[in-house]
Amino acid sequence: MSIDAGLSIVVSFLCFAWIFAKKVYPLLTSALDEHIDSVKKQILDAERMKDEASRALKLAYVKRQEVGDAIEEYRRLSEERMNQLKKENKEYIEQLRERYEASLKTRLEAEFAKQKGELLDKLADTVIQKLSEQVQKADCKVSSVITDEDLKKLM
Fold this sequence. Notes:
This protein has about 160 residues and is mainly α. The chain has one domain. About 95% of the residues lie in helices and about 0% in strands. It is built from 3 helices and no strands. The protein has helices at about 1-140, 140-145, 150-155. The radius of gyration is 61 Å and the shape is rod-shaped.
């Protein structure tokens, strides 16, 4: 009985192994293959995403550098423009000052000439009046001594 029991165990084991090899093993290997393919796909997706992220990071760095360079360029240009505007403003103020001084000088000269003329007219009138008074006191003819026109010529 011991041989029969051992033989039946061996036969049973061989049947089990044959059924396992024909039915269960292909199911297990296909499930493991599917799982391996799924993991490989996930790994490939992760690598692709890593590469995309790396490219995006490099692009962001390049854009950041370009923006920084553009900001520096605009800062430099704005400083140059401010200096140019300050210079133009200074020149414009100087021109305005010169025009104002010239205008003021012209007005002052005109006012001076006007007042000088008025003063000379008053002086001439006063001199004529005084001379007339002196001539009348001396009892001479005024027209024979000096005329208004002569006095104005003298002035």
